[in-house]
Structure formats: structure tokens, C-alpha cells
Amino acid sequence: MSTSGPEHLNPHQRDTLLQIFQHPTSHNIEWHDVVSLLEAAGSVELRHDGKYLVRVGGENVVLARPKHKDIDVQAVVDLRRMLTGAGYGTVVEELEGKGKEV
Fold it and tell me: How many domains does the chain have?
């Protein structure tokens, strides 16, 4: 999959992507927003054990749905690593370069 630009992401998904890369780490990124972003960036598959297998680029990660609506800091760190490996760090730089507020 090519990540030549953020055109394949809708504005809400772009905002979620920016939140994931935000420093300091955001503590209020909602699970359903993350799933929407990951479905646009790759694939999300609900496994038989209730966890989610996420594939973005060549990266795979297994995520558990959080007990509350927001993902935890470790999930943000894992997603940031995975999305960076899939080329989305460049997309974030491009969005921030256009003056997009985080």
C-alpha cells in the first residue's frame, strides 16, 4: 500500500493520526476512532479470542479493546511505532506542514 499522502484518510481519521503522534502523549484517543483510522490505513480483524489483529504496511500488532472508551498510553506508543514503520510519520509531517492544528 502506498502512503504517498493523506488523501485516503478522512478529516476525522487525520485528526486521530495527529493525536497518536502528539507529544506529550494524548490520554483521550477513543477506541472507535483508532479502529476507523486503522481500517483506512490497513486492515483490522476481530479474532476468536476477542482481540484485534491489525495490519498496516508490513507491520502487524494485536490489540485488545480497552475497558473504557480511550486507549492507554502503551497502545498509543505501539500504534505510533507501527504507523511510523508503515510510513505514516511522513504523513503526519505533511499534515503539520500544512498548518493543521494538533
Answer: 1
C-alpha cell at 59: 507491520
User: Which residues touch 50 (CB under 8 Å, ≥6 apart)?
Assistant: 64, 65
Q: Please indicate, yes or no, if residue 90 is contained in any of the structural domains.
A: yes
Pairwise CA distance, residues 77 & 3, whole Å? 20
pLDDT in tens, 10-63: 999 999 999 999 988 888 999 999 999 999 999 999 999 999 999 998 888 899
Residue (of 73, 100, 68, 5) closest to 81 by Cα position? 73
40: containing domain: 6-97
Q: By three-state DSSP, how is residue 99 classified?
A: coil
